[in-house]
Amino acid sequence: MCGIVGYIGKASAPSILISGLKRLEYRGYDSAGMAVIEDGKVVITKAPGKVAALNERARNEWPASRFTDSRAGIAHTRWATHGPPTEANAHPHADQSGGIALVHNGIIENYRPLRTRLEAKGHLFLSETDTEVLSHLVGDCYQGDLFQAVCDALHQVEGTFGIAVISATEPGRIITARRGSPIVIGVGDGESIIASDASAIISHTRQVIYLEDNDIAIVTADHVEIRDLNRVPVTREVAELGFDAEAAEKGGFEHFMLKEIHEQPDALRNAIRGRLDFNLGTSVLSGMGTSPRDLAEVQRVILLGCGTSLHAGLVGEYAFEDLADTHAEVHQAAEFRYRNPLVNRSDLVVAISQSGETADTLAAVREANQKGAFVMGLCNVVGSTIARETGRGVYLHAGPEISVASTKAFTCQVAVLLMMALKLGRGRRFSRDEGMRLAREIEAIPTLVEQVVAQSDAISRIAKSYADNEHAFFIGRGYLYPVALEGALKLKEISYIHAEGYHAAELKHGPIALLVDGTPVIALANDVPGKDKTLGNVEECRARGARILGIITSGDHEAAAAMDDVIEVPACHPLVATIPTAVALQLLAYHIARHRGCEIDQPRNLAKSVTVE
Ligand code: M6R
Prior knowledge:
Bound molecules: 5-amino-5-deoxy-1-O-phosphono-D-mannitol
CATH superfamily of the largest domain: Aminohydrolase, N-terminal nucleophile (Ntn) domain
CATH class of the largest domain: Alpha Beta
CATH topology of the largest domain: Glutamine Phosphoribosylpyrophosphate, subunit 1, domain 1
Largest sheet: 8 strands, antiparallel
Oligomer: single chain
Structural class: alpha/beta
Number of helices: 21
């Protein structure tokens, strides 16, 4: 999704802007641009495509002195919403005078009437974007004070924004503001960096300030002053970033996705460490902010998420019902606020989001808050909007996930949900011994995952023989049904193979019509309750000529005999089995995509963090 970088300080602004944009590439985008202040003018360069194209254009077209001498600027990677990914639509956008430039994440919902009004005053627009309207509006409000002009303009807009604005006549400051779209300000030594994501800041400083909604900041090289839109000063803490730049690099792997798959044993250890209490047979999740008495009052768990996080929620639904005897339901977060959901004070609402910035999940959190539910976040990115707005919850501690395809976040989400279910279950049905046994199963997860990751080369060989297919089906039942959905999502998003996940029993209700000789069916047939029925469904597929790749429990000869190919995962508790099975499917998808020569970390049309509705 769109990315913002702004810089003001002692170094070359263009170089820092380009390297910052590169660090945001993982978010997905389709054009890029930057603006710097030089000799009392704002100079803007933009390019469709990658940041490398923008850099090349600036290096070719700009005098070398602009690179060495410019000390302030703003830059952007755009993921098209209003208008195609052309140079004209790329940010930054100038105002009518050309003296002000602005970059923007989010959507200005009332941009059409604003544009009509400005056109009536003689403004000429060069793009189809809502952002250009905002930049003209700032220019229209400008009377010699950029901060005041941005305040006045933002009072007139409806929608969401994270913005950074510069003016040729005020080269010593950048104005930045947010509503619904994150802005982080890095506080360095004689320099300040603004970004939509801390990844662009971490190589300069670990000291950051997160803006809250409706904050507006005047950022200079040495100072950050924050006010609200009515100019009333507000205080925001300086926080310390908890990961380092090296952790965000590929570490010798060909792709971030492969690195992140391999990181899972450690990520899971981090997610689990210190959170299991073997004496009491429960889990310790202090971020939930719940006493045993609070938990006793929970009558229903509502899980919210999108994409992979939604699939983790589906596993959680089984876990809360089976382990904690608590009614649980999963909602696709985008739908939640439009269906007037019945929510009450005895509901525990868990918003699941790796990034903590997904617009649909955030909106669902706000809806649940409105209805008085007890809401908590299950996020990976510390300090993200959902984490802050829920105010309580459990962090995954999975480390930065850069690849657009989510891997380690999913397995850590499931592990944390199992620990939440254990905590709730311990207060309801588990004896101390039963709780201890489940805690031991959860503790073993990283080791189980190590055994699957070690099979990467073998899975690559199997993947090669499936790489030329254009369709695939994933089937599973019980706890493995959500994992089948997740396996299909992983394959389709990075390999562009049309993949569908189904409950194993569902194929015969329609989709089986699509099976022809050689159609791949990936059957999750681990040795858990329901396996025999899944093997029956496998036979139905085989009878239609399908080629069956089974994910089976190590040493299960009966299941192996039913398959054309197998990937073995270690025996474990049926709910825990969702995690190593998902890892096997991640590796399968990764290797198929690699054999097909796909651009794995940044698949077409996708963004890492979807901050628009
Ligand atoms: O950051 P979130 O977990 O809220 O993101 C939700 C989805 O956009 C995300 O899981 C998406 O489906 C991934 N690309 C899947 O790999």
